[in-house]
Amino acid sequence: MEEQKFGETSHLEEWIIKHPEVIDPTMMIVTTQFDNWASEVGPSLERLDILGLSASGELVVIELKRGKDKTVHLQALTYAALVASFTLEVLAQAHAAWYNKRFQPAEEMTDAQAKEKLENFVEAEDEGKEELVFALPRIILVAPGFPAPVLTTVQWLSEVSPDVTVECHQYGLFDVSSGNNGPDVVVSFNRIFPVEDMERIRLRAQSPRVSVAKEQRSRQAPAVIRIAEKNLIPAGSRIDFDPSTRVNKESVATVQAWLDEDPNRREFTWDPHLREPLRWGVEPDKRWGPTALRNELFERAGAPEANFAATEAFFFEGEHLAVVAGREASDGNGSSEVV
Question: Which Gene Ontology molecular-function terms are recorded (predicted)?
Answer without folding.
Answer: nucleic acid binding
